[in-house]
Amino acid sequence: MDALVWTHAMELGNPAIDAAHRDLFNEMRRLASAPDSELEQGTALLAERLERDFREEEDLMFEAADPGVKAHLEEHARILAALHHVETGNVADAREAVRLLSLWFQAHLETMDRALVHGKDNHASL
């Protein structure tokens, strides 16, 4: 998947968030070319990692009193539900889920996450 290339332009300016995003992105890239035998477990671990990272991001939303928190939370929930819905043993669905997740992730990062970080930066107490 040529689209899975992390670039400096994807960074949001928050070192902790950028590191988490880069790690998730690299894991999606790895899974995109992982052998079938590793895909099911890798997808499950990716879902766990996303849940953890989403919780941390959601904590920031509440701390920053982000006005877009409801839509952001709903988007996180939809993505996790879709990822958990991938049928066990269905390699084709798992591969497609990773592909679609990587596309979603890039769009989400540029819209909702960028707005969150810029809003957070405007709160001196954070």
Automatic annotation (TrEMBL):
The Hemerythrin-like domain, residue ranges: 16-116
Q: Which Pfam families match?
A: Hemerythrin
So which domain of life are we looking at? Bacteria
**Iron: is it a keyword of this entry?**
yes
Metal-binding as UniProt keyword:
yes
Q: Which UniProt keywords apply?
A: Iron, Metal-binding
- Enumerate the Gene3D superfamilies for this protein: Hemerythrin-like (1.20.120.50)
Molecular function GO labels: metal ion binding
List the PANTHER family hit by this protein, alphabetically.
BACTERIOHEMERYTHRIN
Family from the record: Belongs to the hemerythrin family.
NCBIfam families (alphabetical): hemeryth_dom
Protein name, entry field:
Hemerythrin-like domain-containing protein
